[in-house]
Amino acid sequence: MATSEPRGTENEEVRAESPTAPVTSPVTSPEQYIKHPLQNRWALWYFKNDKSKSWTENLRLISKFDTVEDFWALYNHIQQPSKLGFGCDYCLFKDGIKPMWEDDRNKLGGRWLMTLSKQQRHNDLDRYWMETVCVFLFSFCGWLTVLCITSYCAYVLQLLCLIGESFDEASEDVCGAVVNVRPKGDKIAIWTGNCQNRDAIMTIGQQYKERLSIPSKTLIGYQSHDDTSSKSGSTTKNMYSV
Question: Is 23 in a helix, a strand, or coil?
């Protein structure tokens, strides 16, 4: 993270002592060492279902970041969701919000939930999760800033172009995202902070579905955490759908 002032290059220090000292390498431009901040600080959590431990013991904080560069450094060094074992989760949340229903920022909220078939694990899971993450991070950052400093593959550039806009005012209602790897079908969800904030919820759901190019005939539903935690069967009713 950008926590310290950028230092001058060695050439700059030499010239300060001796104006006639030869320059043996070009001076680094500011764009090459100044990190590009995100609007929010984010935390990536990992959950592994070890039945010998409690739920909270199974949840582990991996890292926090607040710049574009630190996000890519982290993302490029962790396993993709499709490589995780069954029962494992990744949770990406704004710093200060824990990925659990009981957190004060989550307890009145809910989630947009997308369920994937087993066949989609190898074809769609990683792509959907990547695009979900980009929707969060770079909608708050500004896509022109990202494109100016990005030197990654064409696929990533396409993603950054795709998610360059934001959820507008509804962005403030977003708490985080979760990917669950499960034997019967994986799940990806966007968590929001207030299940009664219908306008914000519908804006998020509609734009999220559009950006992931989910077919119009495929419905995704929004469920409150309260309904999910108190459900008596295997399914939870949807409050909203798009």
Answer: coil
Show the DSSP H helices in the chain as ranges.
Answer: 10-17, 55-58, 68-75, 120, 126-139, 143-149, 154-162, 198-211, 225-230
φ/ψ region of 218 (left if φ > 0, alpha if ψ in -120 to 50, else beta) reads: beta
Pairing state of beta strands 59-67 and 37-47?
Answer: antiparallel
- For the chain, the residue count is 242
Q: Say how many C-beta atoms besides its own lie within 10 A of residue 66's C-beta.
A: 18
Q: Which of 203, 220, 213, 221 is nearest to 166 (CA)?
A: 203
pLDDT band, very low/low/confident/very high, at 235 (cuts 50, 70, 90): confident
Give the N- to C-terminal CA distance of the chain in Å, as an integer: 37
For residue 82, the model assigns a pLDDT of: 94
CB 226 within 8 A of CB 212: no
Number of Cβ atoms within 10 Å of the Cβ of 182: 16
Give the residue ranges of DSSP H helices in 27-77: 55-58, 68-75
Average pLDDT, the chain: 78
- Least confident interval from 118-127, 131-140, 197-206, 227-236: 131-140
| pTM as predicted | 0.77
Q: Please state the φ and ψ torsions of residue 158, each to the nearest 5 degrees.
A: -65, -40
* Of 2, 82, 61, residue with least CA distance to 36: 2
